[in-house]
Amino acid sequence: MLTSRNEDIGKSVGYVHKMKTLDLNKSWELFTKKAFIDNNNNNREILKKCDGLPLAIALVGGVLWEKNPSKRKWEKVLNDINNTHLGSSTILSTILELSYRDLAPQLKSCFCCLGFFNEHVPIIRAEKLVQVWIAQGLVVPLEGIDQEETKEEIGMCYLDELINRNMVDIKDLSKDGRIKSCCIHRLIRELSITKAGNERN
User: Fold this and answer.
1) Using alpha carbons only, how large is the chain's radius of gyration in Å?
2) How would DSSP label each residue in 77-103?
3) In the predicted model, is pLDDT for residue 69 greater than 80?
4) Are 137 and 194 found together in one domain?
5) Which SUPFAM superfamilies match (predicted)?
6) How many helices (H) does the chain have, and how many strands (E)?
7) Pick from 16-20, 31-35, 121-125, 133-137: least confident
């Protein structure tokens, strides 16, 4: 089976099966798992903007995952999605950009390292990822993190944050519930590589 966003490639090899987007009910079901939902009218408006795309819904949910986000936060997310100044051609690329911009500076640098890993080996060992961050000098305490924690523990907190924001997915857990390995969506990896290139320039 071959997967591609380019329909012409599929036509060249035979039968093309088009993936359907989520309907409104399925979109809402996913959104409520990814974001803190209240009776804010903006949540339905934001959901409609996602066009039934699971990755878009998950990423927006990640921006709003914090407990009880303020009405101003919801309004800001909706305004940012509507903001053509993000320079994105599609709603998904707009939301990818929004997710990146919403990260703390330390997390942006750590996120940019995700693209270093070989795309043909999709599983990333959590311990190795944290060691890369430490070696690059990227692990410094974030607000709310115990100052006495080791760099390894702080690095795992960074990883937890990226997972909570749905930018990284858990692949495997240890018996005691710790993250053993993780993976990233191909478009997330592409964003990481792009942002890493921008930082170098």
Assistant:
1) 18
2) HHHHHH-GGG--SSHHHHHHHHHHHTS
3) no
4) yes
5) P-loop containing nucleoside triphosphate hydrolases
6) 10, 3
7) 16-20
Q: What is the rounded distance in angstroms from the CA atom of residue 146 to the CA atom of residue 16? A: 52
Report the alpha-carbon distance of residue 199 to residue 6 in Å, rounded: 30
Are 110 and 196 within one domain?
Answer: yes
Query: How far is Cα 127 from Cα 104, in angstroms, rounded to an integer?
Result: 21
SS3 content of the chain, % helix, strand, coil (to 5): 55, 5, 40
Please identify which residue in the block is written with the tokens 């997390």. Answer: 107
Both 34 and 46 in one domain: the answer is yes
* pLDDT exceeds 50 at position 2: no
Please count the structural domains in the chain.
Answer: 2
Tokens 């039934």 locate to 52
Whether the Cβ atoms of residue 112 and residue 195 lie closer than 8 Å to each other = yes
Question: What is the amino acid identity at position 171?
Answer: K
State whether residue 51 is helix, strand or coil: coil
| Residue 44: inside a domain | yes
- Cβ atoms of residues 62 and 100 within 8 Å: no
Greatest Cα-to-Cα distance within the chain, rounded to the nearest angstrom: 59
Cβ atoms of residues 98 and 63 within 8 Å: yes
Over the stretch 134-143, which tens digit does the pLDDT of each residue have? 999 999 876 6
Instruction: Decide if 10 is inside a domain.
Output: no
